[in-house]
Design brief:
Number of helices: 4
Number of strands: 9
Structural class: alpha+beta
Helix content: over 70%
Largest sheet: 4 strands, antiparallel
Order of helices and strands: EEEEEEEEEHHHH
Shape: rod-shaped
Length: 511
Amino acid sequence: MDCEAEDPPTSIISPAECNFSQVIFTNVQQFYKPNTDVQCKFRREESFSSNSKDWIGIFKVGWKTTREYFTWISARTSVDDTVLFKAYYLPKDDDDYFQFCYVDHNGEVRGASIPVQFCHNIPEDEDDDILMVTTEVEMVRTNQENAELKKIVEKLTEESTQLQEKVSSLQNETQAQAERIQNLQDELLSYTEKTQRLETENMERTVHTKNLEEETEIMKKTIQSLNSDLQMQRSHEEKLLSEMKSMERSNDIFQEQKKHIEDLQIRMKVLEEEKEKLESELKLYIEKETKMLSERKEMEKSLEKLMAEKNHFQSDHMARQKIVENLTYTANQCKEETVKLKAELELQTSALEKEKKQRENLRQSLEKEGKRAVDLERNLEQKNEKLRSTEEKMMGLCKQVDVLKAENENKIKQMGELHMTIANLEGEVKRLKDECKSTMEAERAVRELRTQLQSAEQKKHGLELQLAQQQDISRQQGEEVLTLRSALELREEEINDLKDVHRVLQISKLK
């Protein structure tokens, strides 16, 4: 016999824990002769996966573990699922029953044959007495084994029913858990979408907040520039007011000069009445008058310079201040000249009173003086026109001041609106911060749901493992039930055969 030198893989697993339905032995005879080779045929189920260390052994009926084999042969020596046991290794002539068993590489039995015997004298029909005794003993033992097998089958059927109920309850619980997990997943998906939407809105609001902050900074800078412009406008307005005051003062001086000229005209009328007394004084007066004319020409030149400087007033503030200083200086000179003229007129009046005797000699000179007076009137009219132009310019300056005041008021309103916009932006920033807090709370809720989902998935995994274990146990018990049923059917067939043999023997006996 081609047995391996080393021992086959065995285990201490009891027959009740083994699955006998995965390998089925076919064409097994009830009796074999000890001195002849024995062919053992078997068939593996499709669900069974074989291994190179699987083996077929011959065991004495009633074995407890696979270590109790009588002889064995490797399954890899099989040809068309058939192995050959050599006669040398087979049991000798014996009354004990043996059976073929297929053992896998883990030492577990996957299939077993019906009981067989190895004996030289195979019972035949002529051996009536011996056959009768053997048949009755076999029938008694078979009935006892059948009763035990029925009890085992009933017990296994009951356990299988209980296991099926337990599996059904576990399946229902698993289905409920799966529905709960699906609901949690849907809720998590909705929370995730909401969180993504909130994150998107938060990003948009953050960008909006940054834009608002940038606009706020720009507005603050604009307010600062407007404040600086406003201060410059105020200083410019103050300068214009000071210039207007100086122009008013110069206008007063011109008015005084006009009144003084009128007084001079009145006095000239008085001098016409007293022509005789004023001949000598007229010479002095003419000299003084020439001086005044030269001074007035100088004043006209200074006024022309002032007009030119006023035209460039907006572009050159420093030149305008110099013009004001020149006007002030000129006004002071005019005042001084007026004082001098008053003193001279007083002297002339006293001289006229002394020289009343010379009036007749001065008539011709008075006519010339009249012409000069006409010239003086023309000069006065020109000065009045210049004064009117100066007043118009002063009115224009006043209008400019009013426009600047209106611009300042508009800028103040703009500053108020900017302050309101800044307050609104600060409120918007506060609202966005509150929304960010609500977004963080939503994210916390999503994290809690995720932890709940993970725990539910772990629980589901545990239930699935339990269900798989129960299904394995149920499947193994079902396979055991099928094995026991097949064994029971074989025993019933043997019993029927024995009954037939017993009936034939009784009939032959009666004959």
